[in-house]
Request: fold
Amino acid sequence: MECDRVTGEDCFYGRLCLRDIYELDDILMNINEIAETSTSIVKATPIKRRAAPV
Reply:
């Protein structure tokens, strides 16, 4: 859905929308052939994304 280039230890931050956790395994196997990954899973979104003030 999204991919951001970020500062700090990580280079990219990606947001995926998956059908199930097994789909994540397939994606990570392809990426791990060329790069090291660190994965986090969102459990809840207490504050929803909103538009910036104009």
The two ends are 24 Å apart (CA to CA). The first strand starts at residue 2 and ends at 5.
